[in-house]
Amino acid sequence: xxxxxYSWLADPAxxxxxxxxxxxxxxxxxxxxxxxxxxxxxxxxxxTLRIFWLDALIELFVEVFRNTPPLLQMLxxxxxxxxxxxxxxxxxxxxxxPLLSAFACAAISLxxxxxxxxxxxxxxxxxxxxxxxIDAARSLGYGRWARFWRIEAPIxxxxxxxxLTNILTNLFKTTSQASVITVPELMYYAGQIYNDTFxxxxxMILVLLIYVVLVSILTFAMARxxxxxxxxxxxxxx
Amino acid sequence: xxxxxxxxKARGKLVVGVKNDYVPYGFLNDKGDIVGFEVSLAKYxxxxxxxxxxxxxxxxxxxxxxxxxxxxxxxxxxxxxxxVTAERAKVIDFTTEYVSAAGPSVLAAKEATVxxxxxxxxxxxxxxxxxxxxxxxxxxxxINLVAFKTQPxxxxxxxxxxxxxxxxxxxxxxxxxxEPDWASYKIAVAPYEFQPMAGGLRKGDTEFHxxxxxxxxxxEAEGKLIxxxxxxxxxxxxxIAARAKAAVAKKN
Lengths: 238, 252
Fold this sequence. Notes:
Chain A is mainly alpha-helical. Chain A contains eight helices and two strands, in the order H-H-H-E-E-H-H-H-H-H. A two-stranded antiparallel ribbon of chain A has the order 1-2. In chain A, strand 1 and strand 2 form a beta hairpin. By secondary structure, chain B is α/β, with parallel strands linked by helices. In chain B, the strands form three sheets. A five-stranded mixed beta sheet of chain B has the order 5-1-6-13-7. In chain B, strands 10-9-11-8-12 form a five-stranded mixed beta sheet. A three-stranded antiparallel beta sheet of chain B has the order 2-3-4. Chain B: InterPro entries: Bact_solute-bind_prot3, Solute-binding_3/MltF_N. Chain B: It holds the Pfam family SBP_bac_3.
């Protein structure tokens, strides 16, 4: 159809590459998403404490990782950390080798990048919460911590879920940049396959579809989570 | 649809894809001009087709985009270290072959003990994404290929010991070894194959194909390719000498 030729898909080597690529993409996305959410929660929690130096530190973290390209962060982690001394001696060869693998460098930089964005998302959730709810909680005698865990956090989480969905889908797609530091994910193998077969259009279409399917599953799950967590009288649960 | 030969003549200019980062085939000289063995050949072809070697536009290409450039009509021909392979022959036509180039070899530290391809099994070796031999490296030799987008990153990673060697075109690695920075490195594993190189043309363009082949044969018969080997500091190959002899014999 349309002169597209997918005969290369019959080659077991290419099947293996695509499979490995998808698995590595999923691993990288899952790991960095989980870490980004955790970092975001800790960051937003830190901001509620109103400690001057902690505020400054978190803001610096957000500015640095939100305002620089993830591609650059990965290259920096991959080439610069090892030259700054993050090295170990490989017992089998006796050579001094970089401590962090390409996958670790990609996972760390994506986690920090996603974490910086998630910090802001969670902060917006906390800050946009109606004052009246907090006043009501206070009048009922909730202390600072009880108020955070039992009132603020549950409501803020619901408010920031749409924003978080954006961040996670973005993070998922950004894993494709890890091919630059040789992480063999989907784009890495896609490039190799179309360089071998010259079926550029066909490979691009297939990879596009794989990303659409995978990211759609993620956004569907997030939409379900949003619906599940919705509470009466607020947002869609209205 | 008009053939490429008519287009080229109507335009008065031959548009050729060449390398600009590959000594000795196509590279930038001190003045910033693109020169090299294949650039000289391309200029010779332009002279044969249009009467002057200045009637040429050199378009720098890289391995991963040159065939797209050709099939999309951005260039008329490729003279850019294009190895002749069956896979490529499905998509483009090759001119007559004019060079027999060594395939990939492995650059490694002088202390490295590996000397055969089979000994690289399970080892991490740096490479370049999209090289034609990558599949063979992983499938046949069982190498854990760590492939980068471009060469500088691969050289850096080799120096960082992220891989025990760098598999790349032998000619490029030989040139790299001449740099003082790389004095403590060697070609650890020699090429397993020699591959003919040819120009690339769009499929089924017979008239243009014949004209280009004729120009290449003429250059061979005049001993031009041997002269260019000398000019660009290449070791003289038996292959090119034999082709020159055959071209002269055919002419007489």
